[in-house]
Amino acid sequence: MSTSSFSRRTLLRSIAAGGAALAAPTLLTACSTSGGGHSVSNAGKSLTPWPAYLPFAGPAPDLPGTADGIQPGYLKYPQQLADAVHEKPGSGQTIKVMTITYGTPPGSPGQNKFWAAINEALGVTLEYTVVPDSDYMTKMATMMAGNDLPDVINFGGGHTLPREAEFVAAKCADLSSYISGDAIKAYPNLANLPAYVWQDMGRIRGRLYGVPVQRSAPGNCLWINNDVFTASGMKDGWSADDFLAVAKAATHGKKYGLGSSAPLLFGHDVHTMAFGAPQEWKVDGGEFVSAYTTDEYRAGLEYMARLRQAGLFEPNVLGTSTVDCKTFFYNGTVASMPDGFGALSTSVPSIDNAFVLDAAVPYTPSNGAKPGMQRAKGAWGYTALKKTTPDRIKLILRVLDYLAAPFGTKEYELNHFGVEGTHFTRNAAGDPIPTKRGLSESNVNFPVKYLCDAPQVLYLPGRPDDVRRNHAWQTKVAPMLVRNPRFGLQSDAQSRVGAAIDTIRTDAIGAVVSGHKPMSAWDDALKKMRGQGLDRIAAEYAEDYASNH
């Protein structure tokens, strides 16, 4: 196996190769003028304690979860809901918010009754700037380079922003004194977030600068139309050749076995990890090894190119937005799509019984490796606050605490289902079933759930069989889940050049898999990534890892 592994012992040797690139200016040079010149590493710093954990004593699940993120399953909705918040967080203040969305624009609070209801419950006016996933990098770079910042900024979705950690440390509020240790008890719903969520968000310079958005154990999945895949020959214990045959049988006319959005790039996480590659990094004897340098990752890319050459992907994958990809999947144009595990709860009502939704179990690769699957970062993202007064910080933390109200509470019902009679009605069993308005005025299209959210549970209104089905899948794939060891760590080089390296990587994957360039272009890209600072990043992650373990 060809690998690149660097640790603190090899840091000095890496500087010669990466130092020049690290000194180059980035799009966000403005960030370095206000505190950005200081290290964001946790190594050698006094580490702020993680927030205390105070679990919510909610309704008992029908299907058990695990402490590390396999979801507890609920076959029915709780009959009695608790109050998680006893006073409105605000008293008429306006809070400017910027966050990502994977849906359609929410309109205005005057037209959107879900938005209006959230404002009323919070006692504030949320002025929302919603950034579509496809525009996130550009919009965030513009915001970070300017001085007119919103009060609340959402970072997440797996994007690598240039100098993100430097920007946060320079321009955002240090929340350590408000939420570390027992201080979090002032915000009991935030205290209900498990320890691994805070740890995967991590510290910057030893301090806490954000509130995480929790995610359960499964990461990016290949969501499949089970009806089509079963009819096409899907079977338990399938091989990579079996998967290709199934995708081929599902492809005919203008229907394709495989779809993807441009950001998820042919489902590269799904396929490279099925071929045994690490999730971005692995630790070997204290040293960090980049997945991109491994033979397994390259084998996964070669396999993806085979799938594309066979005509099994929808032809315009590299020009398809996340919203359009979901539309193609829902209407049957494609029989599968890669997406985060969170797509389960939004896809089920959108499909509306047109077919059975499942997530695929990883196939066995042809290279003899043990198939793996992405374990999600416990924090999908985090919410940072612009520097301001202590009173205003406490106000915004109260707002986030409301949005984190757990399953089994009245606040959770509003945050997730909206207003009864407007956004949902109840079936005979008491489940909140979304109305047509509820499907459009949702917490995806008005994305408060990306600011803060409760620990996720497996509950699908009125669909107990789907809950059982997915819980069985989670249990089956749990041993295959592979964690990224850099979660929660900081690297100065990653902060400065990680986005540029990621662009080299994603451009190369797109070119190679689409057939525009030969496989050797991946080898060339790998040399560029290492020259830009990939090895330096590995060394710094190893140093930060050692200080945290």
Q: What is the strand and helix layout of this fold?
A:
Blueprint: E1 5-6, H1 11-23, E2 93-101, H2 113-122, E3 124-132, H3 136-145, E4 152-156, H4 164-171, H5 176-179, H6 188-191, H7 195-201, E5 211-214, E6 221-225, H8 226-231, H9 240-249, H10 268-274, E7 281-284, E8 287-290, H11 295-309, H12 322-330, E9 336-339, H13 343-351, E10 357-359, E11 373-374, E12 379-385, H14 390-403, H15 410-417, E13 424-426, E14 432-434, H16 436-440, H17 464-477, E15 481-482, H18 492-513, H19 520-532, H20 534-548
Parallel strand pairs: 2-3, 2-4, 11-15
Antiparallel strand pairs: 1-8, 4-12, 5-12, 6-9, 6-10, 7-8, 13-14
Structure report:
By secondary structure, the chain is an alpha+beta fold. Among the domains are: 93-217 and 379-473, Periplasmic binding protein-like II (D-Maltodextrin-Binding Protein, domain 2, 3-Layer(aba) Sandwich); 221-278 and 288-374, D-Maltodextrin-Binding Protein, domain 2 (3-Layer(aba) Sandwich). The chain is built from 20 helices and 15 strands. The chain has helices at 11-23, 113-122, 136-145, 164-171, 176-179, 188-191, 195-201, 226-231, 240-249, 268-274, 295-309, 322-330, 343-351, 390-403, 410-417, 436-440, 464-477, 492-513, 520-532, 534-548; strands at 5-6, 93-101, 124-132, 152-156, 211-214, 221-225, 281-284, 287-290, 336-339, 357-359, 373-374, 379-385, 424-426, 432-434, 481-482. Strands 3-2-4-12-5 form a five-stranded mixed sheet. A three-stranded antiparallel sheet has the order 1-8-7. A three-stranded antiparallel sheet has the order 9-6-10. The model is unreliable at 1-36 (pLDDT under 50).
